[in-house]
Write a structure and sequence with these properties.
459 residues; two-stranded antiparallel sheet; 21 helices; mainly alpha; globular
């Protein structure tokens, strides 16, 4: 919370006191970590779920303090919504005039994205061992897909490697944005939001009106942010074929290309011959939705029903496992498609033994059942939440868009919560529901939902 202070003083935005008060409160609470001395290192898996979830909730509560102390967001519900949206890299906002926010607070808003991007708990895993606390179960709870690509056997090494890649990509994007004419302040905010696939912009109109160079830079880094970070590590260490050897990356990459061309052919007539702009907007919005970033270079609500439906499906699908993107994840989609295909084969050839593989890796039955369970849970939560939002007074299309964008961590949705709108008009009960969905979606649903079961709390 002290990182925004230089901007606060430089721009004389009047929020320095609020930031320092917030930091003091967090520091005081943080000292409590050092008080317990006799802490068991033998955490069970169920303990990891609780620590991850409640750790995130505590961070959201503490992260809301700068908004409350500065008066930028005086309402507690709104402050929690904005903070949860930041730490979960969702990017939905209740702010009606982003550019009026004090510069220090606006930078703190972007920091919540950047910290949440790789997972607050991943950073904690690298630190807690020095405090005598184990962390392997936390990493399992924080995992972003059915497979775990362990770069090193020790979790602290893995966390450090991922943070190094994350930092290098952030700095590279910052420099490229600045070379395109964007100022340092706006560049660092957008770099934080891009690598975290968050989508918080410093502009009310998001990326609308930015130069083609800026938009293409953002497209490139959104694609990188939605890619499994272990692939980036392997690439920079000399394995230059690592990307296209990955079946998940191939599916992810070609899905972006196909969806971009489909939308382009649906909207190019609306651009009066500006074909490059039409393709750029198509590509930008597809990448923004697939990676669950949520930046907007155009108002896709003006494009018609088909492009909006396709973008909604892309939001649900999300990016690759092991990335900062949200959604169901590409590897799960591949597994579901292959499982469905195998079932058709078994209907035609009942005695056939059809192993399920992703690349050279055979997938065991337990993993398949886990993915099917995740998918069913996703659908049940989505349907139930849409129903609740309609009960709370929101129309059906807006409700579907709001729930999908919250669960997948995208930001904008459809209709009343579209890319040029915000969530400020929703009743508090709807904001709390969406905040819960952001948390559950970011932590792969089961991590949070399992805590609601009475059996979880029984010894």
């Amino acid at each position: 919370m002290l990182l925004p202070l230089p901007f606060s003083y430089y721009y004389n935005s009047g929020d320095a006191t609020a930031l320092m008060k917030s930091a003091a409160v967090c520091f005081s609470i943080g000292l409590l970590v050092f008080i317990p001395k006799d802490i068991s290192k033998n955490f069970k898996t169920k303990d990891g779920f609780a620590i991850v979830t409640f750790g995130w909730i505590i961070m959201a509560l503490l992260g809301s303090l700068p908004y409350l102390f500065s008066g930028a967001i005086p309402n507690f519900t709104n402050a929690i919504f904005e903070t949860m949206s930041g730490f979960t890299t969702t990017g939905s906002t209740i702010l009606t005039d982003i550019e009026a926010l004090p510069k220090g607070i606006l930078f703190w808003r972007s920091i919540t994205h950047w910290l949440g991007g790789m997972g607050i708990i991943v950073l904690t895993i690298a630190i807690l061992p020095f405090l005598g606390i184990a962390g392997m179960q936390l990493f399992k709870a924080e995992s972003s897909g059915p497979f775990s690509d362990k770069l090193k056997p020790r979790i602290t090494h893995t966390a450090k490697l991922l943070w190094t890649v994350y930092l290098v990509l952030t700095i590279t994007e910052l420099l490229m944005l600045m070379s395109g004419g964007m100022g340092f302040y706006d560049s660092i905010n957008h770099a934080f939001a891009t690598l975290a696939t968050g989508g918080f912009s410093t502009y009310n109109s998001s990326i609308v009106g930015q130069s083609s160079y800026i938009q293409y830079v953002l497209i490139a880094f959104m694609v990188l942010a939605g890619t499994n970070f272990s692939l980036h590590y392997y690439f920079v260490t000399g394995n230059f074929t690592t990307y296209f050897r990955s079946p998940e990356f191939r599916f992810y990459f070609f899905s972006i290309l196909i969806a971009s061309f489909l939308i382009f052919f649906n909207i190019y007539t609306q651009y009066n011959g500006a074909l490059e702009l039409a393709f750029r907007d198509s590509l930008f919005q597809v990448v923004s939705c697939v990676t669950c970033t949520g930046f907007a270079s155009a108002d896709y609500e003006l494009w018609g029903t088909t492009p909006q439906l396709l973008l909604l499906l892309l939001m649900m699908g999300g990016g690759m496992a092991g990335s900062t993107a949200g959604g169901i994840k590409t590897v799960r989609l591949i597994l579901l498609l292959k499982f469905t295909y195998n079932q058709f084969v078994k209907v035609l050839h009942p005695k056939a033994v059809v192993p399920l593989r992703i690349g050279s890796r055979y997938v065991d039955e337990k993993t398949v059942l886990d993915v099917l369970g995740f998918f069913m849970l996703y659908i049940v939560i989505l349907a139930t939440s849409v129903l609740l939002l309609t009960v709370f007074g929101l129309d059906l299309i807006s409700s579907i868009g709001a729930v999908v964008t919250a669960m997948s961590g995208v930001g904008p949705g459809l209709n009343l919560v579209g890319p040029m709108d915000n969530f400020s008009f929703l009743p508090d009960v709807s904001k709390w529901l969406l905040s819960f969905l952001m948390l559950a979606g970011r932590l792969e649903l089961l991590t949070v939902i399992i805590l609601l079961s009475p059996n979880y709390w029984h010894k």
